[in-house]
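The methods section describes the discrete structure representation at length, but only in general terms. The central task, working out the structure tokens from the amino acid sequence alone, is never made concrete. Nothing conveys this as quickly as seeing an actual entry. For illustration, here is how one protein appears when written out as sequence plus structure tokens:
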Amino acid sequence: GHVASGAALQAQAAELEKELCKAKAQLEEASGEQSALQQALERQSGIEVELHSKAGSLKAALDEAEERHRSDASQNLALEREVAQLEAEVSTLRMTVKSLEDKTAAQDESHQMQ
């Protein structure tokens, strides 16, 4: 059979390498476009999500306003409950502070004993 010369083979290899480079470049370009497209899609769906949540919170705010109109009485109840809770917390804090003061005083006394 006919054996191609080394030079011919090298030329063919060089040719193939060029083709390979071109193909690679095209692939990169294509994948670049692909990822750009992907990003655009993601951005769009992100915007959609944002719009959805904005619409949702707007609706929630409207519902809340309606609720408030409907339930001023229960709103007052809720406030009273909150106030009571706060008062309870405050008294708990006072107790804590007092017990701390007592401890400190006791320590002072034990120091004075020495």
Remarks:
- The helical segments are 6-70, 72-113.
- The mean pLDDT is 84.
- Residues 106 and 112 are 10 Å apart (CA to CA).
- The two ends are 115 Å apart (CA to CA).
